[in-house]
Design brief:
With 503 residues, the chain is mainly α. The protein has 22 helices and no strands. Keywords: Membrane, Transmembrane, Transmembrane helix.
């Protein structure tokens, strides 16, 4: 080899090493920027823009739009479900449909993080919103023609669309608000979702107020719900792409660099086995498990108009409770960890009392064969039997608000939040699927209650360990994001090495 060839080879090696070093440094700097909110400079063009545009791109308006989506989609579904068994004469078809829905949603949300990262939050919501009216239509068809298979079929395929919405809104809840506004903004979302149920409950009560006996609700109820479910699509179309969303100080939402499907899959697998994810399983699984247990309880033991009143009353209480709760956990007088403990006690203690109360009531139901409980015939019995339902439903939403807030304490970029939110909703919908599944049979209804109590007992110690990991003050560093940094650097090094060998 000549001296000139030797010099050329060494020069190429030096050049390749420099390229590799520079590329790695760029990625490392990008990841450092993603981990540190302080490096995200306020968008001066946004701050100089007209007030209407700032409002349109701001996180607060985005939260209102997510609230509208929840209002017209999940809230209307919940309003139907809160009639007790979907308003049908018996709860078993509705429970089977809900079980199928949450089972497919569980499968969808498991891989929801990578899907949302590729499709984007806005388009995921648009796709999900197109399906909203079909679910209400399935209950209408069943009520009018007795077509039970259609309710179950729509429930099953609806899980895929609902799963997209679950992960999209979870991602936004975890990453859009600033730390000191998280409780407030999530509270807005929860309140708007319950305002949908409140409106649905008012409609149900107005249509069914004269029906004192047991049985199905008026078929007109479903037609009104279908109209309201059509509002979701316009709301989804108004959402801003995540890259254009701005926080109150003008900073963009923290975004990480796009990843390949291979890297997204690897990061998802790392997320699944992460300690925090494993600790999150039982709290998420538990959070809405009560749904199947207590809607069946309502359907079997209360009159039609008492169920209609419930669908109006409990969202009203929930809105007030969650609004106050959101402000409580945003209170800066206490450290973040102290607020985590206070928030936990806020909903966990009343729910423990409700389980004991309900177990006593079930023994009385069995002894006296109580059915068709109505608020006009025996107000004392109605209040005594309905109050535990009201408490579990309202504190159930406080529980979910709290879990979103808690996961947001380990804040990171949007893509990491998508994986966290997807797995959270995966665990949550798994609990809902099993809850409605075991309540779709005519067995002793005390058994699902005892299972619910057992899951509560498993939830408490795991959530306690998760709370102990909460930093005393808000932070943006996330060790799962650090894993992404390592993966990104390794991927870049491998790519540059291949390109260098080809020079």
């Amino acid at each position: 080899m000549t001296s000139s060839n030797i010099l050329t080879t060494h020069g190429d090696d030096d050049k390749n090493k420099q390229m590799e070093h520079d590329g790695t440094a760029v990625i490392q700097q990008q990841v450092a920027n993603d981990m540190n909110d302080d490096t995200r400079e306020p968008d001066q063009a946004y701050l100089r823009a007209p007030k209407r545009l700032r409002w349109f791109r701001g996180t607060l308006f985005q939260m209102f739009l997510f609230g509208l989506l929840s209002f017209s989609g999940p809230a209307m579904s919940d309003a139907i479900d809160n009639l007790g068994g979907g308003g049908l004469a018996t709860p078993y078809t509705a429970n089977a449909a809900n079980s199928a829905n949450y089972a497919t949603a569980c499968a969808m949300t498991l891989f929801g993080g990578p899907l949302i990262n590729k499709m984007g939050i806005k388009w995921s919501c648009i796709i999900a919103a197109t399906f909203f009216p079909i679910q209400g239509a399935s209950y209408y068809v069943n009520s009018k023609y007795g077509t039970q298979w259609f309710v179950i079929f729509v429930g099953a395929i609806g899980g895929f669309f609902g799963g997209l919405l679950y992960v999209a809104e979870s991602t936004a809840m975890l990453s859009y608000p600033q730390p000191h506004q998280r409780g407030k903004y999530i509270g807005i979302w929860v309140s708007m979702r319950n305002s949908g149920q409140l409106l649905g409950g008012a409609i149900s009560l107005g249509v069914n107020v004269k029906t004192a006996g047991v049985g199905a609700v008026s078929i007109t109820t479903y037609l009104i719900f279908i109209v309201l479910e059509c509002l979701g699509l316009p709301g989804a179309l108004l959402l801003s792409p995540t890259s254009k969303v701005r926080q109150t100080d003008g900073r963009p939402v923290p975004l990480a660099a796009p990843q390949s499907w291979k890297i997204e899959t690897k990061l998802l697998l790392k997320h699944i086995v992460h300690k925090r994810t494993l600790l999150m399983f039982f709290p998420a699984f538990y959070s809405f498990f009560y749904g199947g247990v207590y809607t069946t309880y309502l359907s079997l033991h209360f009159s039609v108009r008492a169920r209609a009143l419930s669908s109006f009353l409990y969202p009203l209480v929930t809105i007030m409770l969650c609004t106050a709760f959101g402000r409580l956990i945003d209170n800066k007088r206490w450290s973040q960890k102290t607020r985590a403990w206070i928030g936990f006690a806020f909903w966990a203690v009343p729910q423990a009392a409700v389980f004991i109360w309900t177990a006593i009531l079930y023994a009385q139901f069995e002894k006296h064969n109580l059915k068709g409980i109505d608020y006009t015939n025996n107000t004392a019995d109605w209040f005594r039997c309905y109050l535990p339902y009201l408490i579990i439903q309202s504190t159930g939403y406080a529980c979910q608000l709290y879990l979103y807030w808690l996961l947001g304490c380990f804040s990171s970029d949007v893509k990491s939040s998508a994986r966290t939110g997807g797995l959270f909703r995966c665990f949550e919908t798994a609990g809902q699927a099993i809850s409605h599944g075991i309540n779709s049979r005519t067995s002793d209804k005390r058994v699902p209650l005892y299972i619910n109590i057992g899951i509560y007992c498993l939830m408490v110690p795991t959530l306690t360990m998760l709370i102990r990991m909460v930093p005393s003050n808000p932070q943006t560093y996330d060790d799962v994001t650090e894993e992404k940094a390592v993966e990104a650097v390794n991927e870049t090094q491998e790519t540059m090495a291949v390109e260098a060998r080809g020079l």
